[in-house]
What we know:
- This protein has 5 domains: 1-39, no CATH class; 52-69 and 269-347, no CATH class; 75-97 and 190-263, no CATH class; 101-189, no CATH class; 379-639, Zn-dependent exopeptidases (Aminopeptidase, 3-Layer(aba) Sandwich), CATH 3.40.630.
- It contains 20 helices and 27 strands.
- Strand 2 (113-117) and strand 3 form a beta hairpin.
- Residues 387-388, 394, 402, 496 line the site of zinc ion.
Amino acid sequence: MSGRGRVFAVWVAAALAAAPHEAAMAPAAAAGSPSGAAAAPVAAASVATAATVPVAVASVAAATVVPAPAVSGPSAGAGAGAGPAATTADAKPAVVPPPIPAKGLRLRLDEGVYATASGDGQIAVEALARRGEGLAGFTQRLCGDARLAPQLLESNRLPPRSRLKTGRRYRVPFEILASSWQLKAARALFPEDRGDATGWRHQVRGCGALRRENLWQLSEWFTGKGENFRAIREYNNLRDEDVARGAVLTIPSELLRPAFGAALPVPQRPYVLAYGKDQDGEYAVYRLRPGEALYSGVVVRFTGRIYAADVNALAAEIAQRSGIGDVTDIPVGFKVKIPLDRLLPEYLPEGDPRRKEYEAGLRASSHFSNQVQAKGLEGITVILDAGHGGHDAGATVGGVWESLYVYDIAVRLKGLLESRTAAAVELTTRDGDAYRIVESDVLPVSRSHSVLTNPPYAIADPVVGVNLRWYLANSFYRRALSADDDPQKVVFLSIHADSLHPSLRGAMAYIPAARMRDESYGKSGQIYEVRQEFRESPRVEFPWSQRVKSEGLSRQLAKQVIGAFEGLGLAVHPFTPVRDHIIRNRSEWVPAVLRYNSVPSKMLLEVCNLNNELDRKLLQTRAYRQHVAEAMLKGLLAYYGQSASLPAVRVAHAR
Length: 655
Ligand SMILES: [Zn+2]
């Protein structure tokens, strides 16, 4: 008991040093302790550094875009037995609030509201019930949703339908707190924590006698799911499952609870291009900003190249054109010249014919938007297509097969759609004889995927596999139309994971550009001809008006899905996340599974970039894959006019 007053004293000083306005949250007990007074706020110091240090504009790996682990780079902590403590050993003043004592801690957040933490790391809020407020009002105030009242009663060991007593204090578990209270409680308990561009930087305060924090627990606090501990451990290169006091680690933005994700800074700023001409022809000029690399900041952003070989080749060309000798040492503000014919049309000067054509296409297709509102996706058919499978593993990086992971996401999405909505779900492929969600982070190898045509096709040749997918999707579409003749009640969603330049992260969607699709098309050959879906309709016909309409609807769908990724804090490709064609190796095309697909609303989603280390690690966690499936569900609901809140709907008669 004697230690407690001292502990609080240090705590107050630390809180004052870190965030003056939060001092009010600290207990009034003791002020004016000397310790910690000299400490500069950590985050402020590191922000200033980021903004002012002359930037070594990165060469290859574009380290400026790849989020680096909390402190000194990916290999930090690799030192012998170093563990997390070593990752904090850079020149940062240590303002570590005292550990959470074994007896627990209570901090005032507001009138009658306290954040509490126990010595074993349970965090919660306790609040006094106000006069006349009642159970519903109390629950609404603290949880943001009165429907959580039963959970609230249960966590206070009260029988169902109990009444709250005015002036009595009730406990609200962190799990069911409203986002705003979660954030307030966490900020009070962990005053050194900050959001930055990559995620939430958490300083380990330590709990109880051991003065450590357990990764599982920490993962529950900040992400809502203990299972994310593995992703956090890998992201921070930690060796242990629990972390010593004083360590600083980053919880990547895509794993964060919405409360913390929403608190991260948004680094977006507008940029400007100027245009000019010299003996080599017309060019656009972009002035590099601090922290920007030639690869991501210029090539990826303005030319749309994303594949590593393309990005590197064009970066070299632009470097030469701009007189850059050393791409690893480009001064901030340097005028980078981009040949005009390499620019994406939207970055061309106003009035340029290619830009005008592009804008006319956008205008024409924007007249078409989905008019169908479907409560709980009632009456909607969702066709899910997991890319690759069988002997076509798709992209394979670091032992990760695209085919296995995107299939898992498709099956998870199928499960969500079937449990939470009334949509009819069709999959184009299946692994083995039934759909199973494998409850492991790293997925076992399988080559048993077939395209579910009649007869099925055990996937051997990737090209045949793709063609049979669109034949099958078109067959599903015809069947849906024969039941309900509304083309907008069917959506097609193909799920992939890309392998792009390693600096890129996050999701990206492809939709079919009307101008890049054929008017009519069909395959021939026995492998197709023996299948019912082919015989139903061997050729597809797409008149111009239909292609334009499909482009418009698909763009709307893709924007909703990408928006849902953003809304849930999942990484999204930094530039042009919705694209109407692929650019690779000097050719441009629409993926075949979309190009010959009759479903008007369709998209191909690249959930992440397997060449990016963090994306690849995340993909190898169930929690992330589930999160991705939830984002897609949310996007589909939004496309059909449903509120974006999750869980969105529960339909009693869902199949
Ligand atoms: Zn793929």
